[in-house]
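Hi support team,

I've been running sequence recovery on a batch of backbones for a student project. Most finish fine, but this one hangs at about 90% for roughly twenty minutes before it completes. I'm not sure whether the input is malformed or the queue is just slow. I've pasted the structure tokens below so you can try to reproduce it. Let me know if you need the job ID as well.

Thanks,
M.K.
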């Protein structure tokens, strides 16, 4: 899964992952300046791994118990760590038109050292679902990947049909 940018974008190289916050959020650090920032992945959503306001919203939308969603969130976080553990060198790609989310986290595609896109892997393997909350130019592709993961009962879809 090579990344193919469509929209005008900004590329930031020389970053590494310092912490996996959950299945769709990461702390990253510039390897030269040591400046750290939080990054939220474009086009996807993974279940929360702790009780918070969003978990309560997700419970209502998915009609799934919060404790179960937290378990799924822990599985998504663990999968993200296996693919991109702290210390992994990455490149960030951010669409110029949609740079930040509501919480002022930078939105990005995370490109791994082998050129694959972490966003795509998480969706294709069923550990995150595609969402349109924060537009990204790859949303149609992500929706197809999500549909295939759901149909094949991959990742979290092995436990539930909706999260």
């Amino acid at each position: 899964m090579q990344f193919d940018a469509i929209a005008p974008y900004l590329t930031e190289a020389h970053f590494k992952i310092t912490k996996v916050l959950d299945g769709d959020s990461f702390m990253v650090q510039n390897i030269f300046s040591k400046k750290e920032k939080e990054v939220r992945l474009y086009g996807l959503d993974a279940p929360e791994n702790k009780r918070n306001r969003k978990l309560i919203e997700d419970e209502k939308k998915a009609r799934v118990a919060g404790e179960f969603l937290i378990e799924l969130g822990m599985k998504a976080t663990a999968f993200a760590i296996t693919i991109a553990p702290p210390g992994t060198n990455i490149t960030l790609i951010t669409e110029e038109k949609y740079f930040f989310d509501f919480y002022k986290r930078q939105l990005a595609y995370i490109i791994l050292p082998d050129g694959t896109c972490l966003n795509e892997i998480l969706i294709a393997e069923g550990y995150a679902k595609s969402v349109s909350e924060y537009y990204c130019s790859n949303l149609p592709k992500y929706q197809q990947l999500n549909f295939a993961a759901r149909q094949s009962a991959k990742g979290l879809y092995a436990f539930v049909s909706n999260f």
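--
Follow-up from support: It reproduced on our side and the slowdown came from queue contention, not your input. The chain has four helices and seven strands. No action needed from you.
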